[in-house]
């Protein structure tokens, strides 16, 4: 599905094959009912009404905050394995 971005007129282009495949995939296995143009237009209407959530920069900030809060309670690798850190200092 695609739309033009003209100021005075808008054209919507719909792929009949894509709509047909979407209807076909949504049906139960073995369903032999023929797919009509009504089914295709219902699929197009459904696809056009879907408004998936688009993540924002604030979502990234919140994810980082959650990671930092979760990391506060954990120890670093050096704290968990003091002998490993000691062997690294001797290898230098």
Which strand order spans the largest sheet, edge to edge or round the barrel?
A: 1-2
Total count of helical runs of at least 4 residues: 5
Through-space gap between termini:
61 Å
What is the radius of gyration? 27 Å
Low-confidence stretches: none
* Main sheet attributes: strand count, strand direction, barrel closure: 2 strands, antiparallel
Percent of residues in β-strands: under 5%
Order of helices and strands: EEHHHHH
**Nearest-integer average pLDDT:** 80
Per DSSP E runs of 2 or more residues, the count of β-strands stands at: 2
Helix/strand structural class = mainly alpha
Shape from CA axes? Answer: flat
Task: Tell me the number of structural domains.
Answer: 2
Fraction of helical residues: 55-70%
Summarize the structure.
This protein has five helices and two strands.
What descriptors fit this protein?
single chain, 92 residues, mainly alpha, two-stranded antiparallel sheet, 5 helices, flat
Walk me through the topology:
Blueprint: E1 2-3, E2 12-13, H1 16-26, H2 37-49, H3 57-72, H4 77-80, H5 82-91
Antiparallel strand pairs: 1-2
Helix pairs in contact: 1-2
Descriptive account of the structure:
- The chain has 2 domains: 48 residues, no CATH class; 35 residues, no CATH class.
- 59% of the residues lie in helices and 4% in strands.
- The protein is built from 5 helices and 2 strands; from the N terminus they run E-E-H-H-H-H-H.
- A two-stranded antiparallel ribbon has the order 1-2.
- The longest helix has 16 residues.
- It is flat and about 60 Å long.
- The model has no long low-confidence stretch (mean pLDDT 80).
């Amino acid at each position: 599905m695609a739309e033009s971005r003209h100021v005075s007129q808008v054209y919507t282009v719909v792929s009949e094959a894509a709509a047909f495949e979407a209807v076909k995939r949504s049906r139960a296995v073995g369903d032999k009912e023929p797919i009509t143009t009504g089914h295709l237009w219902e699929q197009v209407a459904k696809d056009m009404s879907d408004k998936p959530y688009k993540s924002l920069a604030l979502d990234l900030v919140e994810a980082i905050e959650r990671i930092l809060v979760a990391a506060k309670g954990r120890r670093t690798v050096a704290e968990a394995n003091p002998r490993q850190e000691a062997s690294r200092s001797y290898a230098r």
